[in-house]
């Protein structure tokens, strides 16, 4: 299944989109016929609420030539450190308002991921303790 998407005039149709990143199975080349399109979106307003983000699916689908029901959107500025790092390391930039914007996202995502390593470790230890208690 191909991962290529035709980007046609994204800046004029969706000026609020600064960065568009394909991630997941389509970026990895492991997509099947029914795979969705996982897209990370960097926006001019990073605090855009979930409903407004969801509303971008229809115009994005029109521009990209895919069905809106097949799109899963993630706000690049509000995602978890783990998901951000995965998008930064495995994702493919489809659109950059300014060249190098994806690289800036990669640097930021790597820094946030590194900065939260101790929190993830503490969480894993807590879960391990709870699972051990449940087994007793």
Could you please describe the fold and organization of this structure?
The structure is a single chain. This protein has 136 residues and is an alpha+beta fold. It has one domain: Beta Polymerase, domain 2. 49% of the residues lie in helices and 18% in strands. It is built from seven helices and four strands, in the order αβαβααβαβαα. Strands 3-2-1-4 form a four-stranded mixed sheet. The chain is globular and about 60 Å long. It starts with 9 loop residues before the first helix and ends with a helix.
Classify the fold: give the CATH topology: Beta Polymerase, domain 2
Q: Structural class of the helices, strands and pairings?
A: alpha+beta
Strand content: 15-25%
The total beta strand count reads: 4
* CATH superfamily membership: Beta Polymerase, domain 2
SS summary, helix count? 7
Mean pLDDT: 89
* Domains, number: 1
Tell me the major beta sheet. Answer: 4 strands, mixed
- The low-pLDDT segments are none
Report, as a whole number of angstroms, the end-to-end distance: 47 Å
Order of helical and strand elements: HEHEHHEHEHH
The CATH class is Alpha Beta
Helix proportion range: 40-55%
Order of strands in the sheet with most strands: 3-2-1-4
- CATH architecture heading: 2-Layer Sandwich
Radius of gyration: 17 Å
Query: How does the overall form come out from the CA principal axes?
Result: globular
Using brief descriptors, characterize the structure shown.
single chain, 136 residues, Beta Polymerase, domain 2
